[in-house]
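PROTOCOL LOG
Step 1. Enter all chains and additional molecules of the complex.
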Amino acid sequence: MKEKSVCNCGSCQNQLCARRVPIFSGLDPAELSRMAALITKKRYEKNELIIMEGSIPESLIIIEKGQVKVFRYTHEGKEQILYIFSEGDFFGEKNLLKRHEATYNVEAMEATHICMINKKDFQKLLIEYPEIGIKIIEELGSRMDKLESSIQSMGTKSIESRINGILLDFAAKYGRKHTKGVLVELPLSREGIANYIGTARETVSRKLGVLQDEGVIEMIGNKKILILNMRALEE
Amino acid sequence: MKEKSVCNCGSCQNQLCARRVPIFSGLDPAELSRMAALITKKRYEKNELIIMEGSIPESLIIIEKGQVKVFRYTHEGKEQILYIFSEGDFFGEKNLLKRHEATYNVEAMEATHICMINKKDFQKLLIEYPEIGIKIIEELGSRMDKLESSIQSMGTKSIESRINGILLDFAAKYGRKHTKGVLVELPLSREGIANYIGTARETVSRKLGVLQDEGVIEMIGNKKILILNMRALEE
DNA sequence: CGGGCACTTGATAGTAATCAAGTCCGGTGG
DNA sequence: CCACCGGACTTGATTACTATCAAGTGCCCG
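Step 2. Run joint prediction.
Step 3. Record the structure below.
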């Protein structure tokens, strides 16, 4: 019988999953393995729906790998994207106690692995390890910051500042340094960007065109953008 | 020496304050009185600034009585109102651990009494009574719901739906039933409403005018609105 | 009664939505 | 390897909405 250097049993794999998640970062190994026992995993393919508006989610969901978009449908039937979550992010924390309907859809943007923790279990966990609650409060706080900024920039009316804002967000999350600037692999199509900032596809095209003419960015194909002048975006 | 039926010592008054606050509603009397010892009270007059953007708040603040608006300044210098808080609401929960700068201003809209709890004390409290953390997570969840709805309606572009939305919010919070419909005492001037939904004063006037012509609402002076057809606002 | 402030109303101009072609690109099949 | 097809993107023309500027009105308060 050969000894493995890395344990591959289900529990230990889950533990790896749990360890990777910021909200559990304060726990010690023993606590992590208790956690791990509560985790169920699941895998979704690209474009698969993870949560549908109106359903009643019974678990807290943590993304282990991959990327999802959270959105609602407007009255006119367009989707309004609220968040893009990736590895380490969680959702479903609303309705922790009350069995509320979800007010949003969650869809995998690529092959995505998730960890689920039953809400009852998670509640017990919160009582036992209040630090987790504090971490969650902090994370929610920073999400609210972003939402508030979005509202501010949507109130400002100028589509330009919203585009600048989203480009900066993408740069921070997906950008890589490059000799001439920051190279950003766009996670969304033009239409997706439009649905994020609440405008029309065509307008996104036009505004990006203007930014390119001004020498602020350079479009490389449809899915990459090279940001040449970061400061211009920040105003 | 006469015995009073109601104790008026500082501690007990604070306890009253604490009891009134939803996030402490799970605590028993003994716990409440421990809480009360940590509370400092303060009073602000109308238009007085409670928190200024860029300052570093050191306390969690709970409103005991009165009403405040939370807002930021846009690049053009207009204020963008994010929340209106009243009795029982709290703020300053961001930056619970990290000493971040406030990203918003808070101003009293009328004479307002607040309770402050030092952040260090509050952290200890969270560790000791994890239920408080859960309550906060829930409250933040419902605030995020509202923010998300705002984003959705701002993405929708139609000023009308934003006005309808804010009227419904006001109706829920400040409305009283009346023979013909719901009478709403507006907490904000036309300009305030405009700053809330991100539009111009004049546009608010015009749209309210249209709603009145359509028989959906009836304006009574400048500070009251009688909603005749609730369903029309909900679409 | 008069002044100031909040609100309303009107006219104009600018911006983005919408409708409508047209272009570019990747993939597929011959 | 090339030609074709479809989807995503760009570009153009028109229309609709709302911000802005500018008077004008009404109301509260001294």
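Step 4. Note key features.
The CA atoms of residues 63 and 114 of chain A lie 5 Å apart.
The longest helix of chain A spans residues 130-155.
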